[in-house]
Amino acid sequence: MHAFDVLGDPVRRRILELLAEREHASGEVVEVIAAEFGISQAGVSQHLKVLRESGFATVRPEGTRRVYRLDAAPLRDIDDWLDRFRGFWTHKLASLATEIARGKKDRQGGNKEP
What we know:
Layout: H1 3-7, H2 10-21, E1 24-25, H3 26-37, H4 41-53, E2 57-62, E3 65-70, H5 73-83, H6 86-107
Antiparallel strand pairs: 1-3, 2-3
Helix pairs in contact: 2-4, 3-4
């Protein structure tokens, strides 16, 4: 499965967000995802399997639990691919930052009109 196909699913993106915070046991992931998306344990397990098989997550046994950890390598590959497009938005983001700074300065009284 292509990395963008993996990231195209909101459930898998949310799981990756959880794993970016810290390692999680599969039961912890199921709790959060079931509460937020209403997905069964079996459904969450399928998403975890996709993340493992696509290289976004690793798993290790810890007693009777399976502990998942984010593997950032595929994210670096995506970042590398996106790099060729950054020029399209870098200038616009810099302009936005300038306008935000001007707005803050104006609100602080830095630009009072006579």
